[in-house]
Amino acid sequence: MDLLEREAVLQELTGHLQAASVGPGRLALVRGEAGIGKTSVVNRLAQLADPRIRILVGACDPLATPRPLGPLTDLAPRLGRPVRVALAGALDGTCRPDEVFDCLLADLNSYPSLLVVEDVHWADETTMDLLRYLARRLPSVPALVVATYRDDEIGRTHDVTALLGTLAGYPWVYRHDLAPLSRRAVARLARGHIVDAEQLFHDSAGNPFIVTAILNAPAEPIPATVREAVAGRLAGLSAAARGVVDVLAVLGRRVPLPLLAGLLPASEAALDDAVAGGLVRTDGQVIEFRHELTRLAVLESVPAACRLEVHRQALAAMRSGPVAAGDLALLADHAEGAGDPAAVSEYAPAAAAHAAASGAHREAAAQYALALRYADLLPLDRRASLLEGHARACLLSGRLDEGIASRRTALELRRTLGDRLREGEDLRLLSRWLWPCGRTAEAGRTGLDAVRVLEGLGPNRELARAYLNLCQLACYRHEEARVTAAYAEKAIDLGERFGDAGVVVQARFHAAAADMLSNGSGWEECEQAVSSAMAQGLPEDAGLLALVMCWFTALRRDTARTTAAVDRAEAHCLDHGLAAYLLCARAWAGWGLLSRGSWAQAADAARGVLCHPGPPPVARALALTVLGLVRARQGKARSWPLLEQAAGLVDTGCLLDTGLGWEARVEAAWLGGDLERVRTEAQRGLDALAGRHHPWLSGPLACWIRRAGGTPPRIPEAGPYALELAGDWAGAADQWDRLGCAYEAALVRLSGDAPALHQALATFEALGARLVVARTRAVMRARGVRPIRRGPRAATLANPYGLTVREMDVLKLLDEGMSDAEIAARLYITRKTAGHHVGAVLAKLGVHSRQEAARKLHDPKP
Question: Which residues form the HTH luxR-type domain (predicted)?
C-alpha cells in the first residue's frame, strides 16, 4: 500500500540519517498507535538510505517474558565479531551487559549505520538500558538510532515513560508523531474497491491497518485481522479491565465518565488498565474507543444477557435527568438494546430530526429506519411522517432506492388518509428524485400530478415548490428558455408570498441557467444565485445549484469553470453530508478532466464514482461514459460495453438530457471507423432534440455528421461548433484552445492545412490517442503532407512509460519542483506548451499531481 501522508516524516528522518552518517549521531523516536504505520515508515527509510549506510533492524516481541536484548540478537549477524561474542556471553551469564554496550558502540563508530529498534514498549530492561547508554553517547558515533513505540500502550508507570524522561534533556533526540490518515487519503486508498470511503474513514478513524483490513475483506462486517488483534489485546487485560471494556462497548464509542461511574462504581483502576491496553482512551470527561471497528469487535464478544442488562441500566440512568440533544441517538440505541419499543418510538425520531438538522443525513436515515422497525402500531399519519423523514435522509445520503421506496409508501398512506396537501408534496419530492435515478419521463408525469393536486388547494408554499420542480425539469430537459422562465415566475411569485427563500433563489438560478445554455447569457446570475443560497444558510438548495453548475459548465466544455465549480460543489457537499450530490459532482469532474486532456485522471475519477456502493444512476451512467470514451480514445478494447451499460441505466430522455452519453456513442463509432453508425446515431440524437434548444448538445452531433461525410441539418449550434460547420476550422480550433480542450481543437485541425495537421498529430500523440494518430497519418498521406513521423521514436519505445525525450526533460524538471513558467524558460518553449507537456507526462504516468510524477522518476518500473 502507498505510504500516504508520511512524506514529511520521511523527509525529516532522511535528513537525520544524512546528518548522522557523517556525525554527530542522532536518536529519532517514532511513535503512534498500533497499526498507524511505524514499521512501514522505517522500512521505507531503509530503502531510501544511501547504499553506503549499514542497515541494522531489530524488534522487541510481545512475550510474557521478553527476550534479553532481543533486538540486538536479531541484528547480531550484521555486527562485528566482538559484539557477537560479547552478546553470547551476556546471554549465558559469562559477560556483563555493559561489555556488550561498549562493543556495540565501538562497532557503530566504525561504520555509518542506521540502527532501528522496533516496538520498544515490549522491550526488556536490558534493552531499555542499552537505549539509555547509546543515547547518551550518540554524538560520538556516525549513526542514526530509530526507536518506535506505541504511545497508546504506555501509562505513567511504563518503562518507556521512564526512558522518555531520561532522553528529555538530550538535544540530539528528535520526536516524530504519526497521525491517522485524512479523509482524502482514505478515499484515495479506497479507489478500485466497492466501498463507501466516508464510512471507511468513520470505521477506521484513519488507521492504516484497519483501512487495509477492511479493503482486503470488504464483505466481512469485522475483518478477521481486526477481530484477532482486538481479541489479543483483550486477552492481555485483567478481568476487571475486560469487564470495563465490555460495558464501554455496549454504551457506545464515546461514554461520559459519570455514566460509567454510575454503572460500575470504583472502576477507576480497571479503567486505567483498559487505557494502558490501548483499546480506549480518555478525552476530558469522556472515554472513547480509538476506532468504531474496535468497539464493534469487542461488542461481538459480549454475552447477550450482559448487553441487555447494560442497555437497561444505561437507559434508566440517562432518562433520570435532563436529556441533551446530543444524547438522543444513544438513548434510541439503548432503548432498542433494552427491548423497549415505546422508548425507541420516543427517542429515535427525535434523534433522526436532530441529525438531519445537523446535516448528518446518514445518521438520520439510520435513526428513521430504527423508528420504522417499531412503527406498525403507530397511527397512519405518524408512520407517514417517519417514512417521509426516512426518504429525505436516504436520498440526501445517496441511498436513492431506499428513499424512493419510502416516499412511495408515504404517498400511499397520505392518499389513504385523504391528506391532499401532503400527497402533493410527496408527489413533488418523488418527481424530484426520479430524475437523478434516470427516470426522466416518470419524473415529468409525477411532477405534473403534484401541481394538479396542489393547485386544487389554492395558493400554498407546497405549490411554490411544485412549480419550482417543473421549472427545474424544463431546464434539465433543455426546453425553450421561455418554458423554464414561465414556471420560474410562478414559483417566485408564491415563494416570495410565503417567505420561501429557497424557492426564490432556485427559480432565479434555473431561469438564468436556461439562458446560459441557449444563448450564453445568465452566467453572472447563476453565480449570484449559488452565492446567495450559501449566504442565506440553505445547504440543500446551495448543494443542488453548485452541482448543476458542474454539469452545465461541463456541457459548455469550459474546463476552467468546470474545475472551479467541482471544487466548490465538493467542499459544500462534504461539509453538509450531501452524498448524492457529491457523487454526481465527481462524475462531472471526470468529464471535465477528459475535456482538459487529463485522461488518466478522468478514468480514476470515474472509477471512484463506480466503486462507491450507491451512486445515483445518472452519476454511474456518466462515470461509465467517461471510462468508455477514455478506452475508445486510447484504442483499448471493451469501450462499447461500458457505453451500452451506461445507456441501460437511464431512460433515453436522461441520456440525451445529460448530453454526454449520446455524443460519446457517436465519437466511439467514429473512432471505430463505422461512419454509417456515426451518421445514424447522430441523427437519432438530433431527432430526439427536436423542439428543444440547446446548441451545446445539437452542435457536436451536427459536427460528427459532417466529419463522417454527411450533410447536417440546419440546427442551433454554439461557439466552436458553429465555426466548424461554417468552415472556419482555424477559428473553431482557437476557441477550443481557449476553452482548454486540446483534443477537440486537434479534431477540428484535421480539416486544416499542413501545419494544422502536424499540430493535431502532435496533440494526439501526446494524449495517447492511438486510433486518431493512425487516422491523422492517413489523412496526411492522402493530402501529400510530408514528412510524417512514423510512430514513436526508439527512445520513446524504450521508455517504460512511453515518454518522449522532451517529456523526460519535463519530468526531470518537475523533480526539481519547477513551475510551468520555469520549465518553459529552461527549455525555451512557451508556457502553454510546457503546460501541455506536463499534462501529457501526468496522463502517461497515470498520476494525479506533479509530486507523484516526480517520484516516478526514481522508480523506473511501471
Answer: 796-861
315 belongs to a structural domain: no
Torsion angles phi and psi, residue 54, rounded to 5? -80, 135
CATH code for the domain in which residue 662 is found = 1.25.40
Amino acid identity of 332? A
User: What is the DSSP annotation of 389-423?
Assistant: HHHHHHHHTT-HHHHHHHHHHHHHHHHHHT-HHHH
Residues 46 and 160 in one domain: yes
Is residue 493 in a domain? Answer: no
Query: Using CA atoms, how far apart are residues 444 and 430, in angstroms rounded to an integer?
Result: 10
Residues 754 and 846 occupy one common structural domain? no
Rounded to 10 degrees, the C-alpha dihedral 710/714/719/720 comes to 10
Q: How far is CA 335 from the centre of its chain?
A: 34
Residues 704 and 840 in one domain: no
Percent of the chain's residues with pLDDT above 90: 41
Q: How far apart are CA 744 and CA 462, in angstroms?
A: 45
The answer as to whether 412 is a domain residue is no
> All 3 cell numbers of residue 227?
477481530
φ/ψ of 652, rounded to 5, equals: -60, -40
With CA atoms as reference, report the closest residue to 597 among 760, 744, 721: 744
In a domain, 169, yes or no: yes
Render the burial of 673-682: b for 16+ CB within 10 Å, e for the rest: eebebbbbbb
Query: Looking at residue 824, which CATH number applies to its domain?
Result: 1.10.10.10
What average pLDDT score do residues 304-322 get? Answer: 91
By residue count, the chain amounts to 862
Q: Write out the residue range of the structural domain in which residue 828 sits.
A: 794-856
Domain boundary among 142, 177, 212: 177
Looking at residue 191, its pLDDT comes to 75
Q: What is the DSSP string of 797-846?
A: HHSTT---HHHHHHHHHHHTT--HHHHHHHHT--HHHHHHHHHHHHHHHT
Q: Which residue, 341, 365, 370, is CA-closest to 353? A: 365
Domain match, 834 and 758 both? no
Order across the sheet with 173-177: list the strands: 54-59, 113-118, 143-150, 26-32, 173-177
pTM value?
A: 0.71
Higher pLDDT, 421 or 694: 421
pLDDT band (50, 70, 90) for residue 789: low
DSSP secondary structure letters along 296-344: HHHHHTS-HHHHHHHHHHHHHHHHTSPPPGGGHHHHHHHHHHTT-HHHH
The Cα 705–Cα 677 span in angstroms is 10
Is the Cβ–Cβ distance between 612 and 218 less than 8 Å? no
